[in-house]
Amino acid sequence: MEEKGYTYKYPRPAVTTDCVILGFDGSKLNVLLIRRGVEPFKGRWAFPGAFPGGFMNMDESAEQCAQRELMEETGMKADFMEQFHTFSDPERDPRGRVITIAYYALCKIQEVKGGDDAAKAQWFALEDIPQLAFDHDLLLRNAIKVLRERIHFQPIGFDLLPAKFTMKELQSLYESILDVKFDRANFAKKMLHADLLIKLDETVWPTAKRQANLYSFNIESYNELKQRGFRLEF
């Protein structure tokens, strides 16, 4: 990269990106965490981004930085990633004045392993989150809050469910995100009425005694509804 000279005397805080990576295991919402292999907070769990590689390079955007760090620390690439907040408390990072631009990403759960300065990577159910480094508990709470708002306007399952899924899997996803329990018949009626699903001529046997229909998302219908504006009420 071409060397540039900066002559202004204003303070220049460091900038990082942190990414809250969310996945669905079929029954619960999970979060991908990285165990830090370096100080500060060595051994503590954190989100990808809180590592030396998470500092933004001069020639990349915030999203490029977030995607790069995600790949370096987990080997994953997120198809859906959205910026949700900037955290700038002067005391949030013991290394110095560090501002972080936070993203959340929706990914299908897969095997991951830590890379670079990460000692280990692991998926955790929301109720089993260990003590986190830095202010990442605050990042997580904010990310879940935003996701619960978005789920009324976007078919979150596009990026969390397989291409074919049962109504029970879809309901479990929404219940896990919203932390509520729905009546099975009413939930199915509402989702089918929204015209976001395609009922397939395929079934599976979740148990030896019960057969379940398979569905897929109707992306064309979703795009039309999105242009007009819609909201799913539960």
Principal-axis shape:
elongated
Largest sheet: 6 strands, mixed
Distance between the termini: 51 Å
Q: What's the alpha carbon Rg, rounded to whole Å? A: 20 Å
**Annotation field: number of helices:** 6
Element order: H for helix, E for strand:
EEEHEEEHHHHEEH
Instruction: Pick out the low-confidence regions.
Output: none
Name the structural class.
Answer: alpha+beta
Q: What's the total number of strands?
A: 8
> What helical percentage do the residues reach?
25-40%
Describe the structure.
There is one protein chain. 27% of the residues lie in helices and 28% in strands. It has 234 residues and is of the alpha+beta class. The strands form two sheets. Strands 1, 2, 3, 4, 5 and 6 form a six-stranded mixed beta sheet that branches. The chain has a two-stranded antiparallel sheet with strand order 7-8. Strand 2 and strand 3 form a beta hairpin. The chain is elongated.
SSE topology:
Layout: E1 14-24, E2 29-36, E3 45-46, H1 62-74, E4 80-87, E5 98-106, E6 118-125, H2 136-150, H3 157-160, H4 167-178, H5 184-193, E7 197-207, E8 210-217, H6 219-228
Parallel strand pairs: 1-5
Antiparallel strand pairs: 1-2, 2-3, 2-6, 4-5, 7-8
